[in-house]
Amino acid sequence: MSDPLAEPAVPPPTPATELSSPKEAVGGWLQTLRTGDIGSLPIIVGLILIVIVFQSLNPTFLNAFNLVNLCLQIAALGIMATGITLVLMLGEIDLSIGSVSGLAAAVLLVTHVNDGFAPLVAVLIAVLVGTLVGTVQGSIFAKIGVPSFIVTLAGLLIWQGVQLRVLGEQGTINLPPAGTLVRWAQFSFVPRWLAITLAALIPVLYLLFSLLTRRRRAAAELPVMPLWLPIAVAVILFVLLQLIVAKLYLDRGVPWTFVFMVLVVVFFDWLLRRTAYGRKIFAVGGNIEAARRAGINVDWIRISVFALCSTLAAVSGVVAAMRLGFANQQSGSGETLINAIAAAVIGGTSLFGGRTRRYAPLLGALVIGAIANGLELLSLSSDVRLIVTGTVLLAAVVIDALVQRSRTSHGR
Amino acid sequence: MREPILALRGVSKRFGAVQALSEVDLDVYAGQVVALVGDNGAGKSTLVKAICGVSPPDTGTVTFAGREVRVETPHAAQELGIATVFQDLALCDNLDVVNNLFLGRELRRGAALDEVEMERRSGKLLRELAARIPSVRLPVAALSGGQRQTVAISRSLLGDPKVVLLDEPTAALGVAQTAQVLNLIERLRDRGLGVVLISHNMVDVRAVADRVAVLRLGRNNGEFRTHDVTNEQIIAAITGATQNVVSERVARLREQSAGDDPLAAGSAEGGV
């Protein structure tokens, strides 16, 4: 730049890039890459591998009917994994989410079917039961200082007991097969035109938002991303979403429950990363003493996070009951809890707190769901499913630990 | 002499049967570094905690900017303009530099955080302090000890304080990193802040402090101007090997002879 004869080979496309040299901008961006912003890449690669394996073993895996089923199957799991992600961010654990989801399912069925409450009211009551449970457990943990493992282990037993009591002698309660709730969860699909529009709108909005942020950063003389990056991401996103939508509409289409789950995941991702509340969750999970000294109300963060987790567990229980069309003594038991934790961890949430990857619950739920679905297509019994799911969970954590270690050894 | 920005008079603190501080005086002037030294258990940390509101003194007065104040909470101290950097730094390893700097006082833009403005201000602050941080978007876990200390000290400046208390800022740092932190302390002084530096390291104390206040067994045990005193004299005051009166007398004599004693300077170098 000091040499007046030296013409820049490529003139900067916008005034924005003039403020920081392109080299600097790319350097800064590479640095972010190295420090883990593409951390989801191994999971996506893993997911692609899983798809390839199952598709080669059974060609029906990737047909539209099965993919729509997969969307329906993982909605409840993704919602529950979102909740447990928040708790894991604090470096805590909530073992009661399975029981809470079962309890919520039981409450929904009893209030709606037995007591005749309107569908929406019954859903609301069931979800509020979850909020109440979470608030109580969170308060015992935060205020009395009982380890969350113990509080929620007790909760696991207690709420399962309450679930049995709520269900009473019947044991199993069925939803009216043509009722509103069943319709919501099983037969509600996004109209084709709306799905196509949304799938086009999301990349456009992403691009718009990226460019606005980029302009603000440039105005503040901060390093900016190279311009091609958001454009490339938007194009890839557009093609990918349109392909998925096109595929799913060969069958029934995109289920509303799946859209709802994605919205929950995206909203909580935004809450964690972009708001002061989320930043406090990161801080409490990272260094509780630092958080306290910075004036953060640690008790409030803990109680609210446990309340949110149980609320989401209840929502997940409601969605599951609506999809299955019944609630019984087994609702929310068995692998429900473990699958949710596994999904959060596979997605890239650290069990030590303070670290999670973008959209971890969604990616984790896709992995767990794809494995369960694929093995079911192969008519393999649950022994194989448990072994495979466990192995994938272990592999995810091992890969994460190795990446983390190499990053540390590189001084990053 | 001009007014001290922070003046403690007759500050006492008792924990049960232990008299941790008795009748301690301390003056902190704007644009000056005062080193607070003393043996383990001399009451340095107790005094810092008394000033920064973590555990307020039982008796005695604290005058801040000419006004008598009562600092009951850390928050009140910060509001007043007294910032403290504790030895354990209290940084979140999982958060980047920007987020650590603004922890607990995030800037918002609508419902979301204003990352751009926070990053801009962080960069500006660190540049002003000539602090060498590779990138403000690096997680603090990736920084060296000196850089972490820099971040912790910089953070204390965001509230625009008048007085900064630094608890052992160079403990466990290497030579280059110590120099980095000492530079930073000088820049705080040059910005017109009153700096209280707690340290065990005589070399560091002599490098940056204008005055040295010695605590021994919870009492004042001499106050020196750094130029006029040898390491031996400070150490004597710390350990109580010399009477308070004697060390004061030596200090006075040295002041009169205007510090042209090559022998004394030589022995000071060989001190610790």
Automatic annotation (TrEMBL), chain A:
Gene Ontology MF terms in the entry: transmembrane transporter activity
Residue spans crossing the bilayer: 38-58, 64-88, 117-133, 140-159, 193-212, 224-248, 254-272, 300-324, 336-352, 359-378, 384-403
Keyword Acetylation: no
UniProt topology in membrane: Multi-pass membrane protein
Function: Part of the binding-protein-dependent transport system for D-xylose. Probably responsible for the translocation of the substrate across the membrane.
Annotated segments matching region Disordered: 1-23
Domain of life: Bacteria
GO cellular component: plasma membrane
Keyword Cell membrane attributed: yes
Name of the protein this chain belongs to: Xylose transport system permease protein XylH
Annotated localization: Cell membrane
Keywords: Cell inner membrane, Cell membrane, Membrane, Sugar transport, Transmembrane, Transmembrane helix, Transport
UniProtKB/TrEMBL annotation, chain B:
PROSITE patterns, per database record: ABC_TRANSPORTER_2 (PS50893)
Keywords: ATP-binding, Nucleotide-binding
UniProt xrefs under CDD domains: ABC_Carb_Monos_I
Cross-referenced InterPro entries: AAA+_ATPase, ABC_carbohydrate_import_ATPase, ABC_transporter-like_ATP-bd, P-loop_NTPase
A Pfam family it matches: ABC_tran
Gene Ontology molecular function terms on file: ATP binding; ATP hydrolysis activity
Start and end residues of each ABC transporter domain: 6-242
PANTHER family cross-referenced by the UniProt entry: CARBOHYDRATE TRANSPORT ATP-BINDING PROTEIN MG119-RELATED (PTHR43790), SUGAR ABC TRANSPORTER ATP-BINDING PROTEIN (PTHR43790:SF8)
The protein's name: ABC transporter ATP-binding protein
Species whose genome carries this gene: Catellatospora coxensis
